[in-house]
Amino acid sequence: MSRIMLRPITIALSCATAAAALAVTPTAAATPTDPIQLAACDFGRQLTTYDWAGYDDYDRRVLELSTGAFHDQFTASAPDRRAHATAAHTRSEAVTVECRTDVADVEHPQLVVTVEQSTRSDATLGLPRPQRSSMRVYLDNIDGRWLTERVEMLPPP
């Protein structure tokens, strides 16, 4: 009789151990170590994290991580973006950022960056609204730093 009792406990413990291992694995696997992926993930996080009350800091952070055409377009669109975010009291925060290499070109890598973000504004009555966006990020190495040169928004999966 004790043997029958041990078996369900053993199975339950085995299942609990396996579940605990699975719960830890995604966190460890989600952290990139490649400098190119780190740069793309950081860019995605900075691009989707902003607060209408501190928009100058947002512009500075994104511009520090960009170059070329994207840098110029982002600079040119700053007044309109700021006005829109300020008028709606918009705050956005990247919740998770996932990056994967799409084209492993040593001079101009392309990565797909997927961001789960939470946005609050007057339109959402201050309540968080989850949103998922994916973008293809083109990087260039400028003076030893991987900077975003171009961004293409991808359609939702």
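(ticket continues) Second input and output from the same batch:
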Amino acid sequence: MLTLISLFLFLAIFGRLLLFAIKLSWGIVKVVGFLVFLPAIILGLIFTGVVYVALPLLLVVGLISMVVAA
């Protein structure tokens, strides 16, 4: 019986730690993606000449994401 209680507590504690680690790593991936991939996409659009179409689209998407996040 003591083994089952210990196992339950072990899973409860390390389950929470695992969920915290997954949430933390997802947040880090989002920040790195924002800092690395967004400028790369914008530079690619500038070099290909699609910036005239993409810039208004990026502004609209950016405003919508800011409103939704708030």
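Agent notes: The chain is about 95% helix and 0% strand. The chain has one domain: 2-69. Closing as not reproducible unless the customer responds.
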